[in-house]
Please model this.
Amino acid sequence: MNNKYIGPGGRWMIFWGAPSFVIAIIVCKAPLLEYIVGSKAAIYVFWGIGIVLAIINGLLIDRIPPKLVIPIGIVGWILTASLLYWFLVFGPGSFGHVSDDVVKDQKGIIWGK
Model:
């Protein structure tokens, strides 16, 4: 990509697609995360994971070749949008990964045993 079109801030925002996919996976598994760590600690764990991903993202953007930063970010944003769309349209368990160790309560929330 030509630097006159996308500056360092634009590269940073585009490259955020890669860690946003990890955050999307965590959002889809939020009830299970809440069950594992408890309802009061879940938000802190979620924010902690986000902070760690931000730090990793800051370290990786300088070490990845500049020609790969934008394609990796765009693929990440596409996967993030696809995952969240699929999850929001079809709901929990739509990926077929609900097994015997996961149960659904009366409100339809999926919990691990």
Observations:
- The radius of gyration is 17 Å.
- The first strand starts at residue 102 and ends at 104.
- Residues 1 and 66 are 8 Å apart (CA to CA).
- Residues 8-112 form one domain.
